[in-house]
Amino acid sequence: MTLTLVTNADVVVTMDDARREIAGGAVAFRDGVIAAVGTAGELAALVADDVIDAAGCVVTPGLVNTHHHLYQSLTRGLAVNASLFGWLKTLYPIWARYTPEDVFAATQLGLAELALSGCSLSTDHLYLFPNGVTLDDTIHAAAGIGIRFYPTRGSMSVGESAGGLPPDTLVEDEAAILADTIRVIDRFHDAGPGAMVRVGVAPCSPFSVSRELMRDAALLARDKGVMLHTHLAEDADDVAFSLERFGCRPGQYAEELGWVGRDVWHAHCVQLDASEIDLFARTGTGVAHCPCSNCRLGSGIAPLRAMFAAGVPLGIGVDGSASNDSGHLLNEARQAVLLQRAVGGAGAFDPRDALWIATRGGAEMLGRHDCGSLEPGKRADLAIWDMAALSSAGAWDRVAGLVLSPPGGVRDLFVEGRGVVRDGDLVQTKRGEIVAAADRSLARLKEAI
Ligand SMILES: [Zn+2]
Question: How many whole angstroms from 292 Cα to the centroid of ligand 1?
Answer without folding.
Answer: 12
